[in-house]
């Protein structure tokens, strides 16, 4: 219907860019697999290390393997050596090829299994590999894990659902939502609020010049999450990478 009537179509969940092919009016609310891999790799490559080696581990879902393959492609195209590339379901303590001698400059983990983050960090400790870790936020149980667990570890998380709970706007929204609903707003409630506010503002301001409004600038202000960037793209280019700072998660890549 959207295609035949020239109507904007925003897909809230998919990360694959296949749906964008030959569909200029389709937008992805989330950054695509390729976008996450590229920005994640660019961020890790920007860190002060001359070691151009990487180890990549991934979970059993298609999402996990797709991200891992995309990341490996970015690394090899940039001249990095991939020391290890394997699934987390293996017994990594014995099968992983990295070591104190064969050390990567950083490790990447793409997994939807919330115990895999701890598994990888424990493996790195046993192998005496002190390297930064870039991981999907889904690889950790963020509700139960304590901030002190990351003390002394250089861990960065790709978290497309990141919400800075210290933002006054977030606190105000949570308070108002609780007053009306008698429950704490879920991530879906916050995403829905942001999406409706973003597209409503653009339609009001640009009307039939909607594409030019998307290409004008990055929209990061007045949103509960980290905002929107569709400049010359149809997927959201905002890829939040967070780190632990003073016992709370903060943006590490300055989105």
Describe the 3D structure:
The protein is of the alpha/beta class and 255 residues long. It contains seven helices and nine strands, in the order ββαβαβαβαββαααββ. The protein has helices at 33-45, 62-77, 92-95, 116-126, 168-181, 187-206, 210-216, and strands spanning 9-11, 26-28, 53-58, 81-87, 106-110, 133-136, 155-158, 241-245, 248-251. The strands form two sheets. The protein has a seven-stranded mixed sheet, with helices on both faces. A two-stranded parallel sheet has the order 1-2. Strand 5 (106-110), helix 4 (116-126) and strand 6 (133-136) form a beta-alpha-beta unit. Helix 1 crosses helix 2 (62-77) and helix 6 crosses helix 7 (210-216). The mean pLDDT is 94.
Q: Tell me, rounded to a whole number, the average pLDDT.
A: 94
Q: Give the strand order of the largest sheet, numbering strands 1, 2, ... along the chain.
A: 4-3-5-6-7-8-9
Rg over CA atoms, rounded to whole Å, is 20 Å
Name the helicity range.
25-40%
Proportion of β residues? 15-25%
Count of strand segments = 9
Going by helix content, strand content and strand pairing, the class is: alpha/beta
Order of helices and strands: EEHEHEHEHEEHHHEE
- N/C terminus separation: 34 Å
- Count of DSSP H/I helices: 7
| Main sheet: strands, sense, barrel | 7 strands, mixed
Runs in which pLDDT lies below 50 for 5 or more consecutive residues are: none
**What characteristic shape results from the CA principal axes?**
globular
């Amino acid at each position: 219907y959207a295609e035949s009537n020239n109507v904007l179509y925003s897909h809230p969940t998919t990360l694959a860019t296949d749906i964008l092919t030959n569909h200029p009016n389709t937008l992805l609310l989330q950054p695509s697999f390729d976008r996450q891999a590229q920005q994640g790799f660019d961020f890790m490559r920007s860190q002060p290390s001359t070691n151009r080696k990487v180890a990549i581990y991934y979970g059993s879902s298609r999402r996990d393997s797709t991200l891992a393959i995309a990341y490996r492609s970015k690394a090899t195209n940039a001249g990095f050596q991939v020391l290890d590339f394997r699934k987390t379901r293996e017994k990594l303590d014995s099968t992983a090829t990295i070591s104190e001698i064969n050390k990567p400059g950083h490790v990447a983990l793409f997994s939807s299994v919330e115990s895999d983050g701890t598994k990888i960090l424990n493996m790195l400790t046993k192998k005496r590999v002190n390297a930064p870790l870039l991981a999907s936020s889904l690889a950790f149980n963020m509700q139960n894990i304590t901030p002190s667990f990351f003390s002394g570890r250089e861990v960065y998380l790709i978290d497309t659902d990141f919400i800075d709970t210290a933002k006054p706007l977030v606190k105000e929204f949570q308070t108002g939502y609780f007053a009306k609903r008698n429950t704490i707003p879920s991530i879906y409630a916050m995403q829905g609020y942001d999406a409706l506010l973003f597209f409503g503002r653009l339609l009001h301001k640009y009307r039939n010049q909607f594409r030019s409004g998307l290409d004008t600038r990055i929209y990061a202000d007045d949103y509960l999450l980290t905002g929107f960037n569709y400049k010359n793209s149809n997927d959201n280019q905002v890829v939040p990478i967070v780190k632990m700072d003073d016992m709370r998660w903060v943006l590490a890549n300055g989105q």
